[in-house]
Task: structure prediction
Amino acid sequence: MSQPKSNRLSTGGIIDRNHPLSFTFDGRKMQGFKGDTLASALIANGIRIVGRSFKYHRPRGILGSGSEEPNALVELRSGARREPNTRATVAELYEGLEARSQNRWPSLAFDVMEINSLFSPLFGAGFYYKTFMWPKSFWESVYEPAIRRAAGLGRAPEGLDPDHYEKAFAHCDILIIGGGPAGLSAALAAGRSGARVILCDEGPVLGGRLLSERRFINDFPAAEWVRSVEAELSSMANVTLMRRSTVFGVYDHGVYGVIESVNDHLAEPPPYQPRQRSWRVIAKRAVLAAGSIERPMLFGNNDRPGVMLGSAVRTYVNRFAASPGHRTVVFTSSDDGLSTARDLEAAGLSVEAVIDSRPGHNSQTMNGAPIFSGSQIIRTFGLRGVQAVEVIDSYGNIRLIDCDSVAMSNGWNPAVHLTCHLGGRPLWSDKKNAFVPGTLPVGLSVAGAAQGNFTLSEALDDGFRLGTHAAVEIGFKMSEPSLPGTDQEGTSHEPLWRCIKGKGKRFVDFQHDVTDTDIELANQEGFRSVEHMKRYTTLGMATDQGKTSNIAGLAILAEVSGRSMDEVGTTIFRPPFTPVALGSLAGHHRGREFRPTRYTPSHKWASEQGAVFMETGLWMRAQYFPTKETPDWFSAMCQEVTTTRERVGVCDVSTLGKIDIRGKDSAAFLDRIYTGTFSTVPIGRVRYGLMMREDGFVFDDGTTARLGEHHYLMTTTTAGAGKVMAHLEFCHQVLWPELDVAFVSVTEQWAQFSIAGPYSRDLLRKLVDPNFDISNDAFPYMAAATVSICGGITARLFRISFSGEMAFEIGVPNRYGDAMIRAIMAAGEAFGIAPYGLEALSAMRIEKGHVAGLELNGQTTPRDLGLEKMVASKKDCIGKEMSRRPAMLEPDRPIFVGFRPLAPATKLTGGAHFLDIGSEPSLAADLGHMTSVTFSPTLNSWIGLGFIKSGRERIGQRVRAVDFVRNSDTLVEICDPIFFDREGERLRA
Amino acid sequence: MHDSILTPQTALMGLINAGRYGRQEGDVGIRISEVKNFSLANITAFKNCREPLEKVIDEYLGLDLPIGPQRIEKNGYALIGHGPDQWLAIGYEENSASIFDKLEKASRDYAAIVDQSDARAIIRLSGPDARKALAKGVSIDLDPSVFHTNCTATTFAAGLWINLWQINDSPAYEISVFRGFGASLASWIKSSAEEFGYINQ
Result:
């Protein structure tokens, strides 16, 4: 390929010519300057084709100059930092930037898939739906994989993103969205009032369109005004200027989503700095000054590289001193096109012709360039870029004009996107030929071009007025500001929705290859609602969200369906305004930090023992303690159970919820909460309690100790701790505010360990200070006391058991938790102690038939659980009446029982359904299901717990336990749920 | 006092190791330390008992009960408004545990005073960039015009329920979470402070 000539103008622009930067595009080395975007640098290097279109793989060039860009999507960076679909128009150039074109093979210049273009009649809108229907079986095996291979743009990065992202909150009185003339004047007015102001702008430099136009304010170049305003704003302590920050969403109550590209303009973020930061800005008022986006023209092959928006041409020439073409044809339906022609000529670039679709002004010239009024471009010609245009004039004469670029101007669309995020619908204005903001989010006003007030003087006026208004509304005092004067500008515009038909596709949506005929087809096939048309044609989808294409599409739909723009309406815009990296929404919270982790008091010690942990809620708990002899969970669990049953075991149970309850009505309160009676529990005793929801289903369980006349300590399940606390607060604050009772969570105040097994008392005797008697007589089953241990440390001792063994729970202030587990292990060594984890805990509770989370599943009543005796008859409690509804008392409700396989070694599975022997599996034949299973080392057999219809009456019978998920069908015998030590003699030993 | 074989550990032991971290150039923006050996009690007034409670509190701590989400500090003790008729009492001094113990006994008829000295981890965060670091998780407005010295909040940050109060204008803050969440709190704070350079004390 020949080296293209440089398109960098010798003077002008706001690039830093003393700061050259080298970069590569598709591996080719090029140079640009600081201040360039990738797009402007490519243009300066004479690059015209930057990508291939999505469907037809047509060569595409740069269309725009901002975040609206549909064509110039590239892969930026490489390896783990590769970012596909980056808009070259907003990517700031940095030293060593690497960019690659996408969606082409083998190369950008020659793309095999361009063959799609030849078959384009087949690939019209909806072709997927029509083409890939038969045979049905082909969908999954052939069509979908093939489409998936062909679809998509760019390649995902390889490996984990090495960069860091953050999220943060900011608050202000007034948020200004956009740093153009309207935004700057709004910020100035608001800032001068003393209000706390945040101004966000997408770009690295404030000024908006003023950076791209040759305009004058107060008779000086507009840049002077921008500089002075920026200086004043920077000097105000109450104003924060956020550059490279895009407001991407508006949410309820004045919350705005902002994405700040902190270090996207560098190859790698400096150490300790994030690449991007997402902000939630909470503002009392906001002024939207997001400007507007220029509309393209629809003529044949309007996607040929070199065809560009007029505003973009002015940006490249004026701001970046990069000329998209040397012989430009300007095609316009508004006075804007005349500015483009003027600016090109001022930069010494040739304008071949001005094609003005508006009637009148015939046979004029502009600086030598002919003006063709009432004329249109029909189509473009050229290989790999525009080389000529075919023009039809008002008399119907057709002529060919040679050129290397086309600057098209077809009016502007106000950037109303953010006004729609809370449901507002834009309204069509015939006067402005555009959709303007409809109902606005509360607290938001719209200034300048975003409101359809396109002139510079209107923008400045709106900005000052709305900035002032916002400040005054929230109580700041303001004097009337004096408005700067501006130079004159023409505003005449008669939009041309599509040109006279010629050969070649007329693209509406460049990103999704949607043409005007696709929209006609949608209408013809009945997709006349704008929402249906969008889905059928894919108009306005993908990364650019139709910023340049939507309105033309709507206008064509209006035309072919014989409706007005008003009647057709528009699709709604949703957040985000521009793509937002998911990493920036997660911020710090990735990997282990995805959510907080809660560590138990013995965690460090357990880690040292090589414990395997599992997450239970946010807690990390030891699942089992592997040893050399028992390296896997099964053998470790069996050993831990055996040691506990035969000798002594210890388990960290600090995660169980602990709620301190005090007040003179605490006994009465607990009687209403629990099914059992707690007002009769003697001081120094513990009782098991069951609580129900209002609907009569069991909610949580645990033991509660009475520590004083008006002082109880409730325990809850680990998972239930938070919701039980909320339940108690609700009952107190809403149901019975008259009761004098107070609750505090003391879960983390105490490190609590269960010490279980025949030697548990002997072990404790070595820890509890000698003046406390813990013999069976002095401290029987279900006793509770405050004791001192290890030489004077206050501890709470409870004689309770979940394992079925003689067991104690000892609670010490958490600061001693780590020392306590080490002391217990040391004291227990002589007795052959082993720590046990959740697996052994669970096995032992199943052996004892204790219900747990799998049984307290929100669908079971005390009767279902075989705990109806726990519901005191002499008093009321929450859920009591509802638990006795007739349906709850049906004789064939599934009831809690135990199950054993006929062959002890046959594995049982949780979730298996019970069926009578001989009956076919069906919903009608279903008798219930298995909730918990374990291998019982004590019984040397698999055992299970579950619910089966008329369970108690069926004890001794056999049923099938069928599990289609794990493909098992096992004969089991129904038995009592207590498999071990039915009489509880070991508990009381 | 006791003479136990058990050695106590602070909530954040090993998590905030002395040294300078994060950005190495320039002045440090933030100082981080663990508040150690504090006594903490949760106070909930019983019905119609605010007045007598106030007297006892004044007698033992020399402090008024703050109204609303405010903090009052004097002589090494602070009271922090925590909810309607609820406060946290913090003692930073060596003997505060025994004072709280006496206070609890003296006000048993007026309030539930529950020891939380072991239930929480507290981090102190100070320096010119402390506010910016906190804004990376705390959603409330920390601008001094809104949240200043002795303001307190019970809020949510980085997935954690936190109690937050400002202790001086430098600014310095204390953040408290349930003890088991200490590691997650420290990790978030340190990560948020890296950009500014921080010193662990």
The first strand of chain A starts at residue 16 and ends at 25. Chain A has a mean pLDDT of 94. Residues 506-568 of chain A form a domain with the Arc Repressor Mutant, subunit A fold (CATH 1.10.10.1100).
